[in-house]
């Protein structure tokens, strides 16, 4: 019985990994397309939205990698992240203290001169005040509107999913 359980668990984990790889293909292709261009876009805005508070633990390393690749080719490229789902709450002071890995990842991304925004409307809806977020974070009035503003400035919009 134990072997069967182990085999089923292994199969499920393999399928989940394959799903994550497939789910993120679109953002990989968008970044590859930008890297194939001879001229830089005005900027890039990465959108993150999920129903999981720990989502940034997995997505920030991906965005950090994309940012490194893009800046290697376009050193002055403006890059921003807009997070407007449950994951944004991992960026409060309280949660960053509980999750040092998210704090470290955030510092690495911000160290790449990447602007990070959360959605103030969603935060308010969930009873979280702007002041509860790290001072490193920009609290936008609305996450989707912030993305729209970046797109109107000529930024390329890339939604990062797992």
Please outline what is shown here.
This protein is α/β, with parallel strands linked by helices. It has helices spanning 2-23, 25-36, 55-73, 93-98, 100-111, 120-125, 143-152, and strands spanning 43-48, 78-83, 114-119, 138-140, 155-159.
Task: Please write out the topology.
Elements: H1 2-23, H2 25-36, E1 43-48, H3 55-73, E2 78-83, H4 93-98, H5 100-111, E3 114-119, H6 120-125, E4 138-140, H7 143-152, E5 155-159
Helix pairs in contact: 2-3, 3-5
Task: Explain what this protein looks like in three dimensions.
The chain is an alpha/beta fold and 162 residues long. The chain contains 7 helices and 5 strands, in the order H-H-E-H-E-H-H-E-H-E-H-E. The chain has helices spanning 2-23, 25-36, 55-73, 93-98, 100-111, 120-125, 143-152, and strands at 43-48, 78-83, 114-119, 138-140, 155-159. It has a 5-stranded parallel β-sheet with strand order 4-3-2-1-5, sandwiched between helices. Strand 1 (43-48), helix 3 (55-73) and strand 2 (78-83) form a beta-alpha-beta unit. Helix 2 (25-36) runs parallel beside helix 3 and helix 3 packs parallel to helix 5. The longest helix has 22 residues, at 2-23. It is globular.
């Amino acid at each position: 019985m134990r072997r069967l359980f182990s085999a089923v668990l292994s199969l499920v984990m393999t399928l989940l990994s394959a799903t994550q790889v497939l789910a993120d293909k679109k953002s990989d292709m968008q970044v590859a397309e930008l890297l194939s261009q001879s001229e830089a876009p005005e900027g890039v805005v990465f959108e993150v939205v999920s129903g999981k508070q720990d989502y940034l633990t997995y997505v920030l390393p991906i965005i950090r990698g994309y940012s490194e690749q893009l800046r290697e080719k376009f050193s002055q490229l403006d890059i921003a992240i807009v997070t407007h789902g449950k994951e944004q709450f991992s960026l409060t002071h309280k949660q960053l203290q509980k999750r040092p890995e998210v704090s470290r990842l955030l510092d690495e991304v911000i160290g790449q001169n990447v602007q990070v925004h959360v959605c103030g409307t969603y935060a308010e809806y969930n009873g979280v005040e702007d002041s509860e977020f790290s001072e490193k974070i920009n609290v936008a009035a609305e996450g989707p509107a912030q993305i729209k503003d970046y797109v109107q400035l000529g930024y390329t919009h890339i939604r990062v999913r797992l």
